[in-house]
Amino acid sequence: EDQVTQSPEALRLQEGESSSLNCSYTVSGLRGLFWYRQDPGKGPEFLFTLYSAGEEKEKERLKATLTKKESFLHITAPKPEDSATYLCAVDPTPSGTYKYIFGTGTRLKVLA
Amino acid sequence: NAGVMQNPRHLVRRRGQEARLRCSPMKGHSHVYWYRQLPEEGLKFMVYLQKENIIDESGMPKERFSAEFPKEGPSILRIQQVVRGDSAAYFCASSRRTTYTGSSGNTIYFGEGSWLTVV
């Protein structure tokens, strides 16, 4: 069964304390892996799309990497405004119908 | 999230009433998806639509739930005879295409969601 697992469930960091969030997946065929950020009461905000092992994407303090079994979201020198839930999703559908499988997210809290 | 418009943002319904959630995709997007987020659970795919066609509704409950995306106007997710278990956040998303191209053109973008509370 296709599955996405995110860890840790929750993470508290001091401002400036770098860390990584993990997304491990087991799917029959990966068509894409996606990272989203979700603030309370809001919809998921797109961050990155990764398609193949070895691929990396960066945006400000965030860097996403992909291997054949997992993805990492590295947060460098985080700020309080980076506090949010970070969601990982995979699209395993060969036909590309976008039945994304989401993990339950990592709730990140960055303390000033 | 800019571009995918959902309304209402919050909706309260009594058990047995109907809920209608509306979604207008981003400009230039012709593919619409509905996802549901239950408390403490991940987002779950419900249905994928194009104009006047339901492409994949495998994630949608067989009874009481229906979706449409008419030629004119927004996509609508309809829940008849709501029950307390329907209380959730319902997210609409859209994309330009579904074909795998290796670019971000087939990424889906979400709206702000409609929070349904059944009392």
List keywords for this structure.
heterodimer, A: 112 residues, six-stranded mixed sheet, five-stranded antiparallel sheet, 11 strands, 55% strand, B: seven-stranded mixed sheet, four-stranded antiparallel sheet, globular
In a nutshell, what does this entry contain?
Chain A has no helices and eleven strands. Chain A is an all-beta fold and 112 residues long.
Please tell me how large the radius of gyration of chain A is.
14 Å
**Can you give the mean pLDDT of chain A?**
93
Strand content of chain A: over 45%
**What percentage of amino acids of chain B are in beta strands?**
over 45%
Pattern of helices and strands of chain A: EEEEEEEEEEE
What's the helix-strand series of chain B?
A: EEEEEEEEEEE
Which chain pair has the greatest contact?
Answer: A-B, 26 and 34 residues
Largest sheet of chain A: 6 strands, mixed
Oligomeric status: heterodimer
DSSP helix fraction of chain B: under 10%
Largest sheet of chain B: 7 strands, mixed
Mean pLDDT over all positions of chain B: 90
User: What's the total count of β strands of chain A?
Assistant: 11
Helix count of chain A equals: 0
State the helical fraction of chain A.
under 10%
Shape field of chain B: globular
State the end-to-end distance of chain B. Answer: 29 Å
Task: Describe what you observe in this structure.
The complex is a heterodimer of chains A (112) and B (119). Chain A has no helices and 11 strands. Chain A has 112 residues and is mainly beta. By secondary structure, chain B is mainly β. In chain B, a hairpin with a 5-residue loop joins β4 and β5. The N and C termini of chain B lie far apart (29 Å). Classes of the chains: A mainly beta (112), B mainly beta (119). Chains A and B meet through β4, β5 and β10 of A and β4, β5, β9 and β10 of B.
